[in-house]
Amino acid sequence: MTLLRIDDIHLAFGGVKAINGVSIDVGRGRIHAIIGPNGAGKTSVFNCISCVYRPQQGTVTFQDRKITGMLPHQIARLGIARTFQNIALFHHMTVLDNLMLGRHLFLKRGFLAGGIFLGPARAEEIENRKIVEDIIDFLEIENIRKKPVGTLPYGLRKRVELARALSLKPTLLLLDEPMAGMNIEEKEDMARFILDINEEWGVTILLIEHDLGVVMDISHRVSVLDFGVKISEGEPGDVANDPHVIHAYIGEDDDVLRKLEAR
Amino acid sequence: MKESLALYDTFPKLLERNAKKYGDRKVAMREKEFGIWQAFTWKEYHDHVKYFSLGLVSLGISRGDKVAIIGDNRPEWVWAEVAAQAAGAVPLGLYQDSTLKEVSYVIDHSDSTFVVAEDQEQVDKILDMKDQLPKVRYVVYTDPRGMRGYRESCLLDFKEVERFGREFEQREPDRYEKNVAAGRWEDLALICYTSGTTGVPKGAMLSFRNLLTMAANLMEVDPKLETDEFVSFLPLAWIGEQMMCLSSALLAGFTVNFPEKPDTVQENIREIGPNIMFSPPRIWENMTSTVQVKIMDASWLKRQMYGWALPIGYEYADTVLRKQKPDPLLLLKHKLGYYLVFRALKDRLGLLRIRSASTGGAALGPDVFKFFNAMGVNLKQIYGQTEISGISCIHREGDINFDSVGKPISDTEIRISETGEILSRSPSVFMGYYKSPEETEKTLADQWLHSGDAGYFTEDGHLVVIDRVKDVMQLKDATRFSPQFIENKLKFSPYIKECVCLGNGREFIASMICIDYPNVGKWAESRRISYTTYTDLAGKPEVHELLEKEVCKVNATLPEGTRIRRFVLLYKELDADDDELTRTRKVRRAFVEERYEHVIEGMFTGATSIPIDAIIKYQDGKTSRIRTTLAIRNL
Greatest CA separation found in chain B? Predict the structure, then answer.
């Protein structure tokens, strides 16, 4: 069943065509990866989904509802959360505060009620804290709960950002290079968390990732972009053997080629 | 305390008493989860034990069966233990960081039919070895996270077993009470596998009588109140934690708190502010080095205050410990120091409410000891072993002596054999080793428990432990020395994590040192020395300089003949996964000497550097290779 349908979208910045007619169907409950060389238009696709950009042509449909043209916060409310290539957190706030802020969208009580912190406002805070604590437990970040994000090492910040995205309780999670700049151990942890989020919480995941090993290991389906065009799509194994992909994406680099073939 | 033992002579009976006495009015345990301390009252504790026990019965457990428990400290660990005892079965604990080999050895050797494992990680260890564990019938897990994909028929959720227990109660409503009443004072209550600095682990069999008389006798001299708070963070498989969390807690009725995660222990201790604490030296050593490092980072004013107050603290501690009255001026200065520095320091460490703190399991360096007493934490040394259910000696209030381990507790006789070995006799001396009568006979020869420790009594009746009998060493010129004594002095340095001193039958003493990675790393950073890994950092000449100064400081306090003349910084930390340490973090000397034979040879033959090509083993069985060169330092 399709959860997200990207239908023939085109996006151009002046003369530069970032996306040139890309269509991708993301099935409910899958882990779907988008790969491709730098500048292939992967992040632009993400920005079209989360409505940061509006494609000049084509539509994005989420749960049978057209979402192109909506505002980013409306998208978040629909159940689409994302993380960014460069970490987007409040560095002077604690991990806990960042996550609580992630729940902000769902807080109904106003400024005054929140200030007095009685009755419903209090109940609401407790309810949301519960959700956040559940995520903290899930991602095993109890020990840094009260630490300012700015003092944490990079790998942990990435995890906090994932937690912040999860605090929206999304149906679809967009992960933009969740493993960039991590060491092997951190990558293994992150891969396990992504699998757990998908399998245990049933969250559909669309991810962009450069580490092909990880992509091939954890995703159910892979789409390959090059110069704004989708050049291949399928099961990880099939994509890895597609001559188009090998040529366009990997070029002539024999080393990477062998790595792919080994899988 | 002792009167109640006549009526309630097993753990399940004591639990029943407490549940009746306190009901839902008093908290028996707390576990921090989801950022909140979740409390369980004595009634809830009792109910969990009851239903889990009946669940085990419904699964066909019979009296005398063994139940292995593995995992971090959680209420379920304790419930499972008492539940097994209530059903007449025998629990045994496994260290949560044990490797596959160790886990399967103990489970198989103990003939366990049930295993209670905390989470996926522990379940995996058991399933991996399942074909070598034919006796295991069920594996119960307490944390269902990540277990969705497992289809093995032997796996059961802890809650499911409790549900079986509830169903079983419908059929036989008074079965649990009958089971509990059938428990006897002399019954085998627990098998405690000793970590074993030599050879394979041995299972010490302890009866309720052993465990409870020990707790009651200890409480006579070191009382525990029902209002006390205790934080449980050391492995429950260790006798020391068993003594606090089970025997003492059930007897005295105090509250046991379980931290959220191993990483949050320090923070959680501070939140609880425990009244009683019992830890091995490693924990106290860590605290002192944390303080020293944090002070280095503190502002100028704070450093000055600390620098002023610490000597006063030492002077005060020395005076009091010599049992003299401090003069008014010192008293005043110490009061000032307390309010300016020590109080805040204690608060930071979570020790502000400590009434009784003790250390045991291995020797604690006098410097660390003095440090805590200077701060106003009345740290006491205890002595004992698994075979005597934990403790046989403790310092009495106001009668503390840095070098000794105090006096025997009541009902306990201690004497020194002709060979200088410490022998003891008490109702807490164990029943023997499981399935190894020869070892039992050796340890219990002539009705005395042979400790293997060398020691002597001082004039005022304090026991002094020198070292393991076989560890006391002799240089070529017949100078005797205790490597442990020197090592403890070295370990007081915040930059030294672990070290091994050598020199038996040699001309001089040499030492292999493991640097304290975080502390030395911090030191290096502040001096803009870049490094990549532990191995790299330990190989830096600047780090060698630093450590040389530390060793020289220690040498200055040692007699001429037993000073360290050479040392190397090892390229890796000693690790229990490599069999170099026991699970309670004691150095396995013989093994280490064998493993690093060429390093040791190099030091004694006067080489200047030693090439290394070694394989490192991880808990999950993976290995990696290290190649480097060790430089030898001469002093």
Answer: 77
Give the C-alpha separation, A169 to B121, whole Å: 27
Assign B1 a pLDDT band (cuts: 50, 70, 90). low
Give which of B38, B124, B260 to mutate to test A binding, by max A Cβ within 10 Å: B260
B403 located within any domain: yes
Tokens 């097993």 correspond to B10
Question: Of A135, A168, A201, which closes a domain?
Answer: A168
How far is A159 from A140, CA to CA, in rounded Å?
Answer: 9
Query: Residue B119: phi, psi to the nearest 5?
Result: -145, -170
Distance CA A109, CA A129 (A): 15
Nearest chain A residue (CA) to B36 = A133
Count, residues in chain B: 635
Q: Are residues A263 and A206 in the same domain?
A: yes
Please give the pLDDT value at position A253. Answer: 53
Q: Which of A33-37, A247-251, B270-274 has the lowest mean pLDDT?
A: A247-251
Same-domain status, B316 and B455:
yes
Q: Chain B contacts of A142, Cβ < 8 Å? A: 35, 260-261, 263-264
- Listed range (A168-177, B254-263, B427-436, B597-606) with the worst mean pLDDT: B597-606
Residue B301, SS3 per DSSP: helix
Q: What is the CATH number of the domain that holds B114?
A: 3.40.50.12780
pLDDT over threshold 70, residue B165: yes
What's the ipTM? Answer: 0.71
Q: Is residue A86 part of a domain?
A: no
Select from A168, A198, A222 the last residue of a domain. Answer: A168
Say what the pTM is: 0.82
Q: Which residues on chain A are in Cβ contact (under 8 Å) with B36? A: 133
Q: Nearest CA to CA, how far is B532 from chain A (Å)?
A: 13
Q: Does the distance separating the beta carbons of B264 and A143 come in below 8 Å?
A: yes
CATH number for the domain that contains residue B550: 3.30.300.30
Judge if B464 and B479 occupy the same domain.
Answer: no
In DSSP notation, B396-437 reads: BTTB--TT---EEPTT-EEEE-TTSEEEEE-TTS--EETT-H
Query: Could you tell me the CA-to-CA distances from A61 to A4, A75, B39, B439 in Å, in that order?
Result: 6, 11, 47, 74
Asked if residues B545 and B524 have their Cβ atoms less than 8 Å apart, the reply is no
> How close does chain B come to A134, measured CA to CA in Å?
6
What's residue B581's pLDDT? 85
Q: What would the mean pLDDT of A117-141 be, rounded to a whole number?
A: 88
Q: From B440, B469, B498, give the residue that closes a domain.
A: B469
Q: Residue B112 sits in which domain range?
A: 2-261
**What's the pLDDT score for residue B198?**
61
Name which residue leads in pLDDT, B388 or A15: B388
Residue type, B448: W
- B244 min Cα distance to partner chain A (Å): 25
Q: Helix (H, G, I), strand (E, B), or coil: what is residue B511? A: strand
Q: Which residues of chain B have a CB within 8 Å of the CB of A143?
A: 260-261, 263-264, 267
Dump pLDDT digits (tens) for B223-262: 999 999 999 999 999 999 999 999 999 999 999 999 998 8
Per-residue pLDDT of B407-453, as tens digits, reads 999 999 999 998 889 999 999 999 999 998 988 998 998 889 998 88
Which chain A residues are closer than 8 Å to B264 by Cβ? 142-143
Residue B626 has pLDDT above 80, yes or no: no
Q: Considering chain B, what is the average pLDDT of its residues?
A: 89
- Asked whether residue B232 falls in the same domain as residue B370, the answer is no
Domain check: are B397 and B295 in the same one? yes
Are B319 and B405 in the same domain? Answer: yes
Whether the CB of B525 is below 8 Å from some CB of chain A: the reply is: no
| Residue A131 domain boundaries | 91-168
Q: Is B177 on the interface with A (CB under 8 A)?
A: no
Asked if residue A155 belongs to a domain, the reply is: yes
> Under an 8 A CB cutoff, do B263 and A143 touch?
yes
